[in-house]
Amino acid sequence: MTDPDYRAIFVAALTGVAPDIDPGDVGDDDHIQDDLELDSMDVLNLVAALHETLGVDIPERDYPQIATAGLAAAYLARAHRAAG
Amino acid sequence: MPSLGADMEAGTLVEWLVKPGDSVHRGDVVAVVETQKGAIEIEIFEDGTVQDLLADLGHSLPVGAPLATILAAGEAPPERSGERPAAPPDPAPAEAVPPAPPPEPTPVETPAKSPAPPQASAAPPPADGKRISPAARRRAAELGVDVGAIKGSGPGGAILLADVAHAAPGQRPAEGGPMAQMRKAIAAAMTRSKATIPHFYLSETINVDPAIRFLDDRNAGVPPAGRVLLGAVLVRAATLAAQRVPAMNGHYVEGSGFVPSDTVNTGVAIALRGGGLVAPALIDAGAMDLDATMAGMRDLVTRARAGRLRGSEMTAGTITVSSLGDTGAEAMTGVIFPPQVALVGLGAPHLRPWVVDGRIAPRHVVTLTLSADHRVSDGRQAARYIAAFEELVQTPEEL
Fold it and tell me: What is the number of CB-based contacts under 8 A between chain A and chain B?
């Protein structure tokens, strides 16, 4: 089985909590807070959505590792595999 | 047309959620109105039966204009000669505002969609998933504008009437787009605030390490949906402090002066992407515990992004908390949101040297700046409020 497209899953969760963001506008290096203007409540909703979709429970200390779509795709791939 | 905030002069009815003959109960969402601050769900102020819908979709109506006639049980229909409603919504503050349903993690179900009035096209969302009000859809059809090609500027990417007008060739309105409308609304409210409210300010820098440690322990091993943020602790402390110092909690009404509120409806300022902000209230936040405060804040933020805030949440606030969040400047001196009489400005947490038992130690601190209305309170009450807030934040487990 091929790996899921973690970047697409991340962007879908992102635009779910911030519906005014166009998925096509999200660059790999865009910072979710500094560039995409998510606040801390949005970040929590994003993490909750990823938990629901992938079963990956992202602790607060790991939030910097999902700060961009590029970072998040790599992190989610590792965490998802680790979670089995 | 109810007033949905300071200095709102008019709104545009974009959707009816009831039809003549429907039973309605106080607090039910019956319509959606587009304002300068986006789409707002309108609740009914009375129990009764919808006799007549007086307002057409897509028309801008001044505050106070009749939207519908509601008959109380046993009440006879009025003569149709006049266009005045039996009970126009009262735009007055706090005491006239109906209680909203308690906040929940998911938006409350709105009443079942009624069949569309003949002149409207309340079609379901199109296959492309675009959110658009029935009034905007109808205007797009009238103007021959392709809805699929419009990028909505409303909350949640919703297509607003103004977006349709912008997209139509030769139809560009003089007032500018929705964001310009939002700035006009903010400008009007803030100018009125600064012109009429004699602000004064007290500040205190507060050690929040006890709250951070408490949350580290509480959130450890808890799935994301159950976690509590520092912002919720600070809003909870602001709410309880307002209970202790009633001079900070209520409305100032021209002619009658300060009207303290029995309940604390804590407004939470939410920045919108692309500019602008809204400050919906947690209704009866005083009755919530910390977890309920957190759930209520999440719900407000989610619905603010999706453009599903309710009219009562826009008007019932009795004190507002405006926080800079996790990062950014260390202090903010805010402008009071009329007709309220106090605003709690919170800077982002910063690590600073702190004196603990005569020694210097690093601590995370937050600077609170209380903006207060000098017509209502003096420095002594403001200082009491800040002292109460600081004491509450030191014992987060008791919030």
Answer: 59
